[in-house]
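agent> fetching stored inputs for the flavin-adenine dinucleotide docking request
agent> found them:
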Amino acid sequence: MIAYLECFVHENDTESRPDDDVSSLSKALDLQGSIHDCEGPTDEASRDFGGMYSLAPLAFIRPSDADDVARKVKEAARSSNLTVAARGNGHSINGQAMADRGLVLDMRSLDDHFRVVEANNGSFYADVSGGALWEHVLKQCVSEYGMAPRSWTDYLSLTVGGTLSNAGVSGQAFRYGPQTSNVTELQVVTGKGEIFNCSETENSELFFGALGGLGQFGIITRARVLLQPAPDMVRWIRLVYTEFEDFTRDAELLVTRQDEEDSFDYVEGFAFVNSDNPADGRPSVPLDPDQVFDPTHLPRTAGSMLYCLELARHYRHADDPSIVDMVVAK
Ligand SMILES: Cc1cc2nc3c(=O)[nH]c(=O)nc-3n(C[C@H](O)[C@H](O)[C@H](O)COP(=O)(O)OP(=O)(O)OC[C@H]3O[C@@H](n4cnc5c(N)ncnc54)[C@H](O)[C@@H]3O)c2cc1C
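agent> prediction call returned; pasting tokens
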């Protein structure tokens, strides 16, 4: 790796970064064990979910904690043109988590930090690592505390830092806002390699910059996520529409209902093709395992597109099931 680093610098960068800088960079970056060779375009850090770009980094680094992230960023900041990108689970589609011949930090390697805290006002929060996958956060919150974050993404193999750097949207956002609105505190490593705690009241500019900031205002190493009691059960419903106007009218009605007692806990809509193509047609919208989508139920007027509202109502074992039935019927 050292040879690779020097070779790169000699070929491309001798003017802006003299040799003594290179060796100090190599030392300070702690090449032992934490930097991994980049083998060109096939390397994990040179690719993302979108598959449209391939940019080979100089190094793919696996930091173990916030101090380690800060050390790497501080050293990179000493160079005039070495860029750094945090990489969560690489589910961007446009190369956002890549650094062309720069340093890519694998945030999933951060220590698995997890702690649930109760605030003075009785609210519960989970302190989690910026590199934690949401599916692990959910599992820990539910299995150890019977709690769950309030706002989600549909797909959970995404990191906390990755979605907080975007927004994090799913069927609960109509009630609680995106995931970025359900975080009360962050620990962030800035571009100078300094570590700050920030919130609405402490270093607020950094807090609001980092949330939705695509990693450009700092690297999120820890987040305090608002929790609520996890439901015991969920009534899950999918409604298929043939008319776009009916679909949007019902969606608007459901998301603007104010009374939580009388509405759904999850509302999301999507469109799909009226065909039997498994990729984007009717088979791509699974129903209950014992139910199949029967296209003969579709009216003759149905066009080439169909629309689906996905709804869920939470309840507890102790709740009278007729209450759930009543809300659904209404
Ligand atoms: C199959 C799939 C399903 C999806 N479903 C949803 C969904 O339901 N709802 C939704 O809102 N989005 C969804 N997305 C989009 C997804 O939320 C974003 O692409 C998100 O950025 C991916 O998270 P990641 O951990 O893979 O981040 P990456 O793609 O690795 O990084 C995303 C951006 O965040 C930056 N970043 C990563 N970690 C940090 C950190 N710790 N601190 C600061 N910056 C950081 C990166 O530099 C990059 O700019 C989906 C994407 C895919 C591919």
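agent> quick read of the result: The chain has ten helices and 13 strands.
agent> awaiting further instructions
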